[in-house]
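Re: weekly structure request thread

Next one in the queue (265 aa):
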Amino acid sequence: MSASPSHRRTLVHGPEPDLVGAAAPRRVLVVVPALNEEATVGSVVSAVRATLPDAHVFVVDDHSADGTSRAAAESGARVARLPYTLGVGGAMRTGYRYAARYGFDAVVQVDADGQHDPEHLPELLDGLATSDIVIGARFAGSDPYAVGSARRFAMRLLAWVVSLVVGTRLTDVTSGYRALGPRAIAVFAENYPAEYLGDTVEALVIARRCGLAVTQVPVRMSAREHGRPSQGVLGSVMYVSRALVAIALGLVRHWVVPAAARRAS
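Done, posted below.
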């Protein structure tokens, strides 16, 4: 039996933001993709609001089985609950379309598990003065973020490959902590990939194909509180292989630059 129409809709709770006017100051949307993050999403939203009190916080609940939506709303975020679990890419695509619909000038992605330090939000946003996408890079400074040797090698290899494609030296291409300006919002509202690693490495290839400028700033990140990344040599080989497929897809697919992105340039 097919789901009823009410179960197919993305449910959004909270007041709608005012549409931006031509003379309005820059409006920032912080998008927090979340799946079963009831224990941490509230503190993440509160920390973001403390750092950027004028920003709008938009939590996209990826069909969680716990109280993620309730915890986010109680912390003051506007919440969209997806009817099915789509992954980070699908959740972020929802965020970019929301940003494009309501005329936001900048989007910042912040993980719901507490890995991303909100203190770096102003630095990411400042980088948009000269770039369309600013990545918060774990390995670009003195950040002690620890990963296994095999996984670190895999991440360095991917960074080298993507840097060649993008034309800019990047050290942490799988970081989801990133800020985007209006041209990137317009592109990703239409083209953001939902496949595994598409939301990180393939998205950067799409950015290059659509003429977007990418840079990075060093940030600190905390160790994840839930789950484990791929470990060991075999896991790292699989990780790199899947990432290279994502990069190849980004290179061979046809990407259309939306008119809104051309107008914002």
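The longest strand covers residues 28-34. The chain is about 40% helix and 15% strand.
Next request, please.
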